[in-house]
Amino acid sequence: MSDTKFCNNHPSAKAIASCNRCAKDLCGMCGNFVDAIVLCERCSEIHETEKYVTTQSEKLERPESTMVVEEPAKEEFIPPTRRRGSSKVIQWAVVVVGFCIISSQLYFYSRPAEVQQDPSALAREQQLNSLVQCMLVFREIGLTLQEGRMPSNSMLCADSAAANILRNEEGGIRFYHPNPQYYGYAEISVGDESAEPKLVRAGQK
Predict the structure, then answer these.
(1) In a domain, 7, yes or no
(2) Is residue 70 part of a domain?
């Protein structure tokens, strides 16, 4: 029996490679060569989204506030921790809103017909946006742990129906998402050793 494989999207075209994430067979037109790997169109979008989130997270700064409020009649002292918290919240909000606007514009511009006709595409877009916001929440948890403080119970992803899972591992603290399979992952977590969230796909060790 022939071992020849054919493209999942074009059954008459021979496959030249398989997607490194979902293992779909791809022809030369369907294969996307990204970072030395081959991805199908959907997996390529997910890969680019994850890279964008990581890049934006690394650019975030947490500067100390140097603004002095002068009121001759009445002056209120603002503790440094509150100043950092306010600045941090503003930065997170700007990043999340900016990413949502950019990703929505790119999506509607590139595939307007599909947006109107395919509800599953809209659901996938909403899931990607939700994943981005969840990763930002977990990075906030990691930053809080590195400051030597315990995260607030309110630091939850929007989809979480339960509290994050806290575990002590080899002398360190790590928080786990209670339902990572919602995003197609086996694990979403962050610890006090690094502020960057850890994503583990299903079947990946």
Answers:
(1) yes
(2) no
